[in-house]
Amino acid sequence: MNVVLELYRQDPTSTGEGEFKRYELTLEPTDRILDGLIRISRDMDGTLSFRKSCAHGVCGSDAMRINGKERLACKTLVQDVTEKEGDVVRIEPLRHLAVQRDLMVDQQVFFEKFRSVKPFLIPKDEVQEKERLQSPEERALFDEATKCINCSACYSACPVLDDNPDFIGPAAIVAAARYVFDSRDQGLEARLDVLDSKNGVWPCENHFECTRVCPRDIKITKLINLTKREIKKYREARGEKTAEE
Amino acid sequence: MVYEFDAVIVGAGGAGLYAALEAGRTAKTAVISKLYPMRSHTGAAQGGIGAALGNVEEDKPEWHAFDTVKGGDYLVDQEAARILAEEAVQTVYDLENRGLPFSRTPEGRIAQRRFGGHTRNFGEGPVHRSCYAADRTGNMILQTLYQQCIKNDVHFFDEFQVVELLLDGTRCTGVVVFELKTGEVHIFRAKAVLFATGGFGRMFRITSNAIANTGDGPAVLARAGIPMEDMEFFQFHPTGIKGMGILITEGVRGEGGILLNSKGERFMERYAPTMLDLAPRDMVSRAIMTEILEGRGVRGDREIDDWVMLDASHLGRDVVESKIPDIADFCRTYLAIDPAEEPMPVQPTAHYAMGGIPTDVHGRVDTGGTIYEGLYAAGECACVSVHGANRLGTNSLVDLVVFGRRAGKHIAEYVQNVSHGPVDEGAAKAYEARVAQLKTEKGKHPGPIYREMQSVMTAKVGVYREEGQMLEAVAAIRKLREDFQEVRVQDTAENFNTEVLAILELENLLDLSLITAVSAENRQESRGAHSRPDYPDRDDEGWLKHTLARLDGDKVSIDYKSVDVGIWEPKPRVY
Q1: Residue A121 to residue B103, Cβ atoms within 8 A
Q2: Homologous superfamily of A2-105 in CATH?
Q3: Interface pTM, i.e. ipTM
């Protein structure tokens, strides 16, 4: 079918706003939007810049806004975002991160926030000779959080970041929850200085935009609330106040 | 700019990150990756990592080593396979200790599932050996190792692409690197360089590989005059999503999924009576292709792009959603199919390069007589060789963690006792001139060359290979390499010029396609994944040897090195 991809273009050297450029091409309804972008860059306009790698939704490279919603270009089929011949699909870079060029954004801030929550095992005990034991039930407690691929879709969709760019954002909290709820980890305490701070978990206002756009179907808002609850429990047990209070 | 490190690791997948963690213990180490963090293709590995933990039933590393050798149709170096299987056990425990979220048995131990070609007691029947984290084991390995690198302050250069190797004779002194953000060309001086750049399945049209899998490491080394080992052995995974090549893990069959032809027959009964759907991948891919060529594919037209069905619907929704959730998601996204209800349309997909940069068991580049000092390779881009003519499922993850770790350890030792070698700083200037030339003139788009290369390789150097077709492929790739000289970039910008990067990647794929096609045409036997109707049998007398193929302009010269068969005598391969 004939479709028009209307792509945000921004010159890397200019500091001004970008503009939209239209590309008409023929794609199968079951083609990925990414297939369209690749076709443009290899056959029509070599100056188009975007990131991509795995092309099936597991590496997180190609999150962008497609018709206003954060999606992975490789997990969005043409038929998902068009209704009829000649439909226009508008593609823009993610929000809340600086545009480097065209559809590429600088994820450095995103990764700094990810790193700030200490997203690695802080073990409760010494290294074992074999594996640490963990029941399937304990393992299930953090399964959801292991699905994150750091694509930044949630970071772009989060309305809180519109007004408070210092909020660590949904993905960083998911990364923290991955370990906070892991029975092998020391959990919350080592990460409290970031999580239980002004720009830690508390700015989240349950807009659910992160959950709505997550291409991995992670119930992000729920994980944020579980983390908040865990922090409250921890502070209450010690007669302390949270940074929210 | 000139950077100086003790060790430079090229590639940030499983092998590169594990090596960086080990090398970084003593050596000033940098990791260079053309991608952003955690985008590497290790993250796409699904089904598991093989290790004889024996958590579900009795198992031994010796059985794992034997399965690896037999699975590789005896082209495996056997001491390397023994190391692989033995060190797999401790490495899996190490990964768990570093936080990897393995699925668990009811007793709380690491869960294990069956996988193709993995057997108990030297072939008696399938064994539970694959340690898994649902169907995203590779992603968990990638994340866990990257997280450990954060913890250990490993120094990363993201979106830097290595374009040239710096050698002083047979000693590696560093690499030339293109920085995407600025377009600058840098020199990284190093006492040791490890290439861990992954595979090059993008030379084929139907592939499970990432767009980034363009064989940058092997191509750079090949152009520096280092021969590539066993490039004719490329694995076609039996179950890629029809038309797209996206992988449907062997774990589906490990959990009980079965393959069916258009008549609803479980055809693997005819090809592998004992292991059935869990026979090694080369055999299952051939079985599917034979069904298709004999008219029992779903469409029934005997064309190579026909397909068969993989049925998991009898496993029930609970198993599908808990054991293969990502697969279910792929099916819903790309096929609008629910695998708990309906079978999945599948066809062989180019998946894994058994061949690559020849190394010894420490990861040192070893061309069978010459060891290149300070030059290492690990993971899919390397050929140790533990996979021989056909890799077993789960052994790619085993390979990259075991040999990535070993190479890192060796580098940590090695750099203690040597100084930096001499580097010609003019090398960066030469490369800058190359990029400038790509930009100055008008020329062709790369798209048609890319597509033609992929079509030729898929049609003529695929599951079954015939003499005439392979000769046509060699000629066609030669022609495409000539046409490539006329390709120019439209994009003249310095910053984030992804077009320059894409064209350099295409050049790498073309060079490796030529080496692959020539190596395939040269080997006159059928062994593992290399299957020739004109030479249908394995020929140990003539061909129990590794190919070494050296690129020299538009020619590829062939040499050989011996196979280590010190433990098990080659036998016919029956499953």
Answers
A1: no
A2: Beta-grasp domain (3.10.20.30)
A3: 0.96
